[in-house]
Specification:
This protein is of the alpha/beta class. Helices cover 29% and strands 21% of the residues. It folds into 2 domains: 16-67 and 158-221, Ribosomal protein L1/L10, rRNA-binding domain (Ribulose 1,5 Bisphosphate Carboxylase/Oxygenase, 2-Layer Sandwich), CATH 3.30.190; 73-155, 3-Layer(aba) Sandwich (Rossmann fold), CATH 3.40.50.790. The protein has 9 helices and 9 strands.
Amino acid sequence: MISKRYKALPQENRKLKNDTIENLLKTVKKNCTTKFDESIDVNFKLNLKQKKSEINIRTVLNLPVGKNKKIKVAVICEEERLKEAKISGADIIGSDDLINNISAGKINFEKLISTPKMMVKLGKLGKILGPKGLMPNPKLGTVTNEIMKTVKDIKSGQVEIKNDKDGNIGLSIGKKSFSNENLIKNFNSVVDTIIKEKPVGVKGNLVTSVFVTSTMGVSYKLKLNKNI
């Protein structure tokens, strides 16, 4: 069923030929007719054809222009580092007590950071944290001794770049309220990161297609300025 919002869009906004992000952003923003500040989202279809997910992309990126999204961050560290964790700006801090709370199912955070020493104790909670995507991971920078820097990075707009089982990467590059220039900066940063993370086993181009849309808008196919 076609929604009333879609029917209300100008005919020329519904279907456009492949174009660059620079040209399509204007149209994407015109389609943001809701009262809230819609996200501008991109989706990459990747050439990851594997049966058991042997080849994956998973990393983090500090966007050039942060999304200013409030993220509740928890830090697990040794008792002697709790003061440091507190002044880092983390929302929840703890040591063995926080591990016990998580074990009891008390999870009221969106990101979890752990120092390397505490991972030995935290490892037993893999079955609880793993399915929720909350288990600290060295590759994602959430197992670290740099508590202050990591909390700051996460709260200032750090995003996770991770493909799903079908080989797609979807993420937000900002909000409608962002200038086109800043959205383009964030988009190009994502593209550069995906290029950098291209798995060795992938033959040919890594990205097969890219689409851009807003939270409640129409999706448009992007024409990349370079092959990936």
